[in-house]
């Protein structure tokens, strides 16, 4: 059961990215929900994801560590708020496991996978608590970084995953 209406209006402090992917949504959803697949594409070009842990249930852990070419690491941890296979995943860094509030909530991500004649209309939305956080995320390179991640995701689901 989804907590969000099917046509959620744009949030006040939202950044988003949408693309039609030439792969069925079951494959795109799998690439998002299987740690060994997510690790292949998560992060912008040049980054790797040596650590990815998922507890795929509401309140379950979603943790990644991205590594830059210079060895710098960028850990992220949060929890899943909603999981509707194969249609939607919602996660946030506002909480950790056990619903313990994080030190600094930055965003909630809503990722949807809509079937369009066997292809996937993919939409990733990043909701922020403030205009400042939204602007900071945009200045960090949200569109470039999430776009490059999406390019990598498309490569995984169209060339590396069997049907």
UniProtKB/TrEMBL annotation:
Secretion signal, residue range per the UniProt entry: none
Family annotation (CDD domains): SRPBCC_CalC_Aha1-like_3 (cd08896)
Residue ranges of domain Activator of Hsp90 ATPase homologue 1/2-like C-terminal in the record: 22-157
Similarity annotation: Belongs to the AHA1 family.
UniProt name for this protein: SRPBCC family protein
